Amino acid sequence: MIPDMVSIFADPVRATDPFFQLLSDHTSVPLDQIRYIFLLSMGYPLGAIYRHGLAPSPAHIALRHMVSTSIGLLFGLMCFGWVQMGVLFSVTGVCYAMLLLVPSKVVHVYTIVFAMASMSAAHIYRMMVDYGGWHLDFTGPLMLMVQRVTLTAFALHDGVAHKEAELNEDQNLMKLTEVPSLLEYWSYNYNFHTFLAGPTCTLKEYLNFVDGSNFKTTPTQNGDGKTKIKPSAQYPVINAILGMLMYAVVYLLLSTQYSLDNALEPGYSLASRVLIAHLSLLHIRARYCIVWLLAESVNNYIGLGFSGYDKEGKPVWDVCKNVCVFDVEFATNVRALITGWNVTTSRWLRRVCYERVPPKFWISPHMAVFVLSAIWHGFYPGYYLCILTFMFINEAARKMRTMLRHHFQTSPAKKVLYDLVTTVTTVFYMDFTTTCFSLLMWEKCVLFWSYFYYIPLVLVVMVSFLPVPREHRGEGKTLEKTD
């Protein structure tokens, strides 16, 4: 027994491989993916113990931190082993030291530079050892960790280096006025229900969840505080599970039938190529959405997903929402597509980049977001082709919407026609662009686009440079808010 325990401690990945290999053989799901799904699913029974056995109370706060962190670290060791977990420990350790030692006026700059540099090195290493591969390794949790450590540094900067009047509403809500304890910081980064697959929330939201204050009081319409009964998580949990099961069916039906590499083969008509690409991307998206919706349901069940009540007193569960299924699959415009996909990452980009670019800076906030997003994802050429093209698509869509949309708002039939055309166009360009994101390699991306003679790309670039008529200037932002 002792040698067995020693071997498990020395190499947790290899020691647990036989169990997960058995699951993989029976489900035909790759070993690394079934390991992830199993550990994420353990969030339900563990969450029940955590939610009811360690219910929020002053006596349980430290214990909740320690239990959640211990389980999360165990999950990490079972997935990645000591060496890769050591990389993650190093990143969080250095970033926490920066919170203690670096002046609050610049701590956010030092943190984001170090975190992004560390992640970039990890991306380069992965490209060297597994170029073009989809094997799950520590880079996924590291990408999420980069979000958490930078959000914390920016929140501390806001709370210590700025006055309340200098911050917007969200920054005032999420700011930190002191450095969190080491236990709080580690619990935030390594808790068992967000460490592996997210979603990312702010440290303030996480601490409010641990001590239960996110459930206690909510402002009413007249401004008074009102204590409410802890809302039921039944609907948001079931809703996320149903979405996950839907995508699981899509993945099982399509993943063995369609591949993006098939769309690169000669002999297909253009319509067939578009259909193959769409169905291939659908099951690729499903792979992400299964994990995101599983994580969302677990975190809603535990209580982290609850953010408060709306003006009508209805509970809102949006802290851990990472995908808006309808907005992604049937988006009527590019903005809805971008904001509906990887929601917590979009929120992170807004908080640490878009809102931080000073006026009249050499780079626009939108451009800065696209650049940071590209580096955060990695260095495959396909990522940059995808994100660069989306920049042009976003600008072209904004201009076309500004110049054309008002012509189709005069009757219900015209509105339906407008929505139908924009949905088909958005879905087509989503497939045309995100194909590069999945193909990764320059040669494959260019080959796919060549079957279209690059016409869709040329069109959006041309439209993005069209001047907006004077009478329609200023309408773009208004329309973006109403679409």
Task: Outline the secondary-structure elements.
Layout: H1 2-10, H2 12-27, H3 31-41, H4 43-53, H5 61-101, H6 107-129, H7 139-161, H8 169-174, H9 182-190, H10 203-211, H11 213-216, E1 217-219, E2 225-227, H12 234-254, H13 270-302, E3 308-309, E4 315-316, H14 325-329, H15 334-340, H16 343-354, H17 365-377, H18 381-404, H19 412-439, H20 442-450, H21 455-464, H22 475-482
Antiparallel strand pairs: 1-2, 3-4
Folded structure, characterized:
This protein is mainly alpha-helical. The protein is 69% helix and 2% strand. The strands form 2 sheets. Strands 1-2 form a two-stranded antiparallel ribbon. Helix 2 packs across helix 5 (61-101). The protein starts with a helix and ends with a helix.
